Amino acid sequence: MSAGPINPKVMETMGQLFVSLPHCQTLGMQWVGVEERKPTLKIEWREDLVGNPASGVIHGGVITSLVDTTSAIAVTANLPDFETIATLDLRIDYLTAAKPGKPIFCRAECYRLAGQVAFTRAICYQDSVDLPIAHGVATFMRDSSKVPMVQGDKP
User: Fold this and answer.
1) Residue 4 has what pLDDT?
2) Three state DSSP letters for 89-115
């Protein structure tokens, strides 16, 4: 069993920062929690997020943003100190359409933290994590900028 975040302050601060970004706020991303360094976010179903009005299914770009953001927070759960990270690569397999009217959850984990790159995997689901609607894998560059993201970051 994995322990909690390496540095809870880093993960909490960065998690709050990511979900407060204008793009994430517009989509309505919400923090659900973290378990064993695996954060979970959710987005409630809303009509303005629908990609196909005939079916009421949420647009795939919303799920992409949810996977990217949750995965980034998973990286921060494994960092000992504040770092700036950037998405290098993101792949999503859409397994089935999300059911209209229900929230979408995303749980992610950072399964490898290397010197300059972090590797993540994520699952999006509605009713149960055992019934995924999408899988995502991503890589993130570590210390990608000398511009701090939050106060207290190293220059």
Assistant:
1) 76
2) EEEEEECCCCCCCCCEEEEEEEEEECC
